[in-house]
Amino acid sequence: MSDKRLKMVVMLILLAFLSVAGRLFHLQVVKGPENRMKAEENHVRLRSLIAPRGQILTSDGMIVAKDSAAYDLVVDPIVLRGSTALRWRITRLFRSTQVGRYARISDVRSKLIAGPDETAVGLEFKAEAKDVWGNKLTDRGSGSVRVPSVMEEVAGLVASVAGVDQMEVLERLVHATVRDAYLAFRDVDAVIIGDLSFPVICKLELAMSQEERRLQLNDRFKRKVRLGVYVKARPDRQYPEGAFAAHLIGHVGKVNAEDLEKWGDSYHGVRSKRLKAIDTVGRTGLERRFDFDLRGQWGEQLVDIDGRHNVQEILREVLSVPGEDVVLTLDAEMQRTAEAELRRLGRPGAVVVMDPEDGAIIAMASYPTFNLDTLTEDYSDLLRNREHPLVNRSVSGGYPAGSVFKIATALAVSESLPGSVDCGGHFRIGRFADNATHGDGVVLEEALKRSCNVYFYEAAYRAETETLLDGLRQLGFGAKTGIELPFEGGGRVPTPDWKAKTKRGQWLLYDKEFLAIGQGDLLVSPLQIARLIALVANDGALVTPHIVRERRTFDGRITQREYPVAPLSLDRTVLSRIREGMRQVVNDYGGTAYKAFKDWQPGYTVAGKTSTAQRKTRGRVDNVGWFAGFAPYESPRVCFAVAIEHLNKDEGGGRIAGPVAREILEVIRKRAE
């Protein structure tokens, strides 16, 4: 060989060596940290361990909300057959952009394109990077790449066994691969088919295992093959009692983009409770109010996998922690009775039953209602329903009160109460009419018993407007009660300022007079009325209504909250006279609730007050009937408020709402025997 040729060969070898050395330097030094991270990702995986949500139970232990196992078909985008080839094709397309070689993808959209011979995926993406001077570079790209045939085979197998559309399955497989590659959702497996039935699970497991076995036998080296799709269990929120206390319990919903943006890193400062794409979050009721407590804490596993993505070792494990159980003050039998009575009437309304000593809610029902287990399917119809079944009428604060509010007026202007009045059917000033002529010498007890408006017109007339308003505020009207339920309404106590701003009118005498008998622009909730009755029954203490008795952790620790009970400076003589008047309403002939309780079992005395509040809805008479009270009279154990809508002109609260309360009290009376 001539020297010239030898030099040429040596030169070529040297160039080849330098080229390899330069490439190695680029990979190990320039790209070393990045490649090291990718290598770690290839053999170390971080897996999230889902924590079950806590249960919700009644005071007697009945479970009304719990997690049970549901099963989804999910995909691991790294193991999925054909995913490596698809990633490579997408990467080549991505690098064709101006900044693609050193940028990250901040947004990507994919859509399948079905052709006669092959299936492709169309992509639109946005790339972002910074140049050496720190300037932001942005580029957009689009194109299409062919979907690997082996991925189509996986989709075909799943679709044929599960009885779903193959293209839909394939599109989800492709979408999961794209998102996993560029949007870093690696701690969550993408759901391909949700809520699998047991027969479909069995068929899928059998078909997938047979296919993996076939592929292994056909492999040259008999290596274990994974399809990359598998059945995975997850907690699924269930409500075993259906419509039982639906407005109170509430429901959960899947997290959305807004939730993830707000709580994706930590949930109220706790990282282990952060929201993830497959998570649920409380949307209404107690599920919403106690979402943080009910939510479990995510666990995680750091696992070492081999080249075929089989787990070799658990490197680190943090176990998940179940959420706390929430135990309610509800009595299951009382709640069922209240709901059954509202359902029997078939009219919109609400019932509240409370312990007058501490404000614990024994029953709270609203009608019409809904079934929590089928809420998702029924939601559109519920929204269109003109009776608004999704609204919790017990706490919404949208009812006129009528005569039951006279109790509040008597307490608010106790110093201005007349000794007696002569009732001729209307008030002595103006044209303030009464519901009847009650005769001469009507005292407070008689005014409550027969619902005499003139007595309370006179009391309000004697008092200053601010005295009346201050007294009503002290009793809690015009403000939320503080119960642990979202979307509580505070109602409305009209004032001169409110009227000037809202109606642009001057506060007149009739505004104060109508307020005194619970009419005009006054709005209250059944819960506020029940708290008023509790104050009368317990001799002047304003309780804080509550529905949660305690919270329990999975290891048995119990958390209880103290609920304030505020004694008010009220005239004890007036309180005693109000209680006597309420006793006469139910037990004495001529009382407005006498007919509803005339054959009531003696020995368990009920005291109450009826009411028929006038209102119009959509141009027609739509009165609201009330019956509120407490029992037993001698030593009150419960107080209650019942409100029923759609009363006609000839119907009253005692006639319609009274029997509802009677059936509820019957349950308590039988227990006391």
Polypeptide structure, described:
This protein is α+β, with helices and mostly antiparallel strands and 673 residues long. Among the domains are: 41-62 and 241-328, Penicillin-binding protein 2a (Domain 2) (Alpha-Beta Complex); 332-672, Beta-lactamase, CATH 3.40.710. It is 37% helix and 23% strand. The protein is built from 22 helices and 26 strands. The strands form 8 sheets. Strands 2, 3, 7, 8, 13, 19 and 20 form a 7-stranded mixed beta sheet that branches. Strand 14 (349-354) and strand 15 form a beta hairpin. Helix 3 crosses helix 5 (166-182) and helix 4 (149-162) packs antiparallel against helix 6 (198-218). It starts with a helix and ends with a helix. 40% of the residues are buried.
CATH topology term of the domain at 332-672: Beta-lactamase
Strand composition percent:
15-25%
Helix content: 25-40%
Assign the CATH architecture of the domain at 332-672.
3-Layer(aba) Sandwich
What's the topology here?
Elements: H1 3-30, H2 32-43, E1 44-49, E2 56-57, E3 63-75, H3 83-94, E4 104-114, E5 119-130, E6 136-146, H4 149-162, H5 166-182, E7 190-193, H6 198-218, E8 229-238, H7 246-249, E9 252-254, H8 257-263, E10 280-282, H9 285-289, H10 291-294, E11 299-305, E12 311-318, E13 325-328, H11 332-345, E14 349-354, E15 361-367, H12 375-384, H13 406-412, E16 421-423, E17 439-442, H14 444-450, H15 453-462, H16 465-474, H17 496-502, H18 509-516, H19 526-537, E18 541-543, E19 548-552, E20 558-559, E21 565-567, H20 572-587, H21 594-597, E22 607-613, E23 616-617, E24 620-621, E25 623-631, E26 638-647, H22 653-672
Helix pairs in contact: 3-5, 4-5, 4-6, 11-22, 13-16, 14-20, 15-18
